[in-house]
Amino acid sequence: MKNATFLVIGGAGYIGSHLVKALIEQHHRVIIVDNLSAGKATAVLGGELIVHDFEDRAFLDQLFQQHQFSGVFHFASQIVVSESVKDPGKYYRANTAATLTLLEALRDHQVGPLVFSSTAAVYGEPLYTPINEQHPTNAVNPYGRSKLMVEQMLADFASAHQQKYIALRYFNAAGADPQARIGEQHDPETHLIPLVLQAITGKRPPLQLFGQDYDTPDGTCIRDYIHVEDLASAHILAMNYLNNGGESGVFNLGNGLGYSVNEVVQTASKVTGEEVPRTYAPRRAGDPARLVADATLAKNTFGWQPQYSDLAEIIQHAWAWELAKN
Ligand code: UDP
Fold it and tell me: Does the chain have fewer CB atoms within 10 Å around its N or its C terminus?
């Protein structure tokens, strides 16, 4: 697709901003809708940023009357699992109900296709790894369920109204723009790699390493860290696939490589040349021992190939961003 116009909802956030960058690099026109509750205007490296809540139906009606989009990417969501347990209403409203409003607007204005940010959290405690898309979905917290419900709505809207979609189930998004212009910046930050790096710079207290008694080779949890640039490329391939007549569906996005928390800590030490200040804490509630993706389907269906499978390189990019950001 050449010189198309795309809508990116939540395009000022961590993953969305990397997609916006990639779309701009491919010379597409991009409209970004973000209320900046978590995103940053400075993360939007191009396109037109509209600061607004996407769940405002009158706003969406006007937007879809003004622009002819070749597709919509939807990233905007609440993502802190522990908060979702304490305040589920916030998650069902922001992630599920708001997306229903979007789906109805897309239906009424016949806009599509839609590429949606889903999560490995839809699987819950894994029954086997690597996890393929046939693995049962059994989300164990409101965050995962709020995303799973959207996947179900997407399937129902696709059958009833022929609205095409792809839901991408991310494993652990990590890394940053290789030129360190944009990267991860959550508040609160709960993710391992930025917490490790900020423990090194002294911006945060020592890392609390959660759990050393898991049934894994070194006793710490294993995760599949996938570079944010590789997530961005998957979104574009998924969108092109749908626009070229491909079928709706759900796809895992991960490297297929598992690294333990200890391996992340050791690799961060090697990359930065610094010890990681850390303390040892009990398990964090709800953390499965091992989450590793089987992403064969995305590779075979729309030709995705992650470019950054080396953990050291992923951490190197995150570190350069950590030093570059203010
Ligand atoms: N983790 C940790 N200390 C922290 C944050 C995370 O030991 O301060 C561990 C966490 O228990 C998990 C892994 O790092 O095993 C990845 O956690 P993260 O929150 O980055 O992603 P999740 O897999 O929970 O989505």
Answer: C
Q: Which domain holds residue 274?
A: 192-223+257-296+306-325
One-letter amino acid of 22: A
User: Quick one: which H or E segment has residue 117?
Assistant: strand 114-119
pLDDT of 3 strictly over 80: no
Whole-number Å distance, alpha carbon 191 to ligand 1 midpoint, is 6
Instruction: Determine, yes or no, domain membership for 184.
Output: no
- Which distant-in-sequence residues (6+ apart) come within 8 Å of 256 by Cβ? 130, 224, 292, 293, 294, 295
Q: How far apart are CA 92 and CA 131, in angstroms?
A: 25
Residue nearest to ligand 1 atom 10, measured at CA: 210
Rounded to the nearest angstrom, the distance between the alpha carbon of 14 and the centre of ligand 1 is 17
- Taking only the tens place, the pLDDT of each residue in 117-133 is 999 999 999 999 999 99
What is the per-residue pLDDT for 326? Answer: 66
In the set 92, 123, 143, 214, the catalytic residue is 143
Are 310 and 216 members of one domain?
A: yes
Q: Are 20 and 149 members of one domain?
A: yes
Looking at residue 278, the DSSP 8-state letter turns out to be E
Same domain, 146 and 281: no
* Pair of tokens at residue 317: 């990019």
pTM equals 0.98
In this prediction, residue 1 has a pLDDT band, given cuts at 50, 70 and 90, of: confident
CATH code of 280's domain: 3.90.25.10
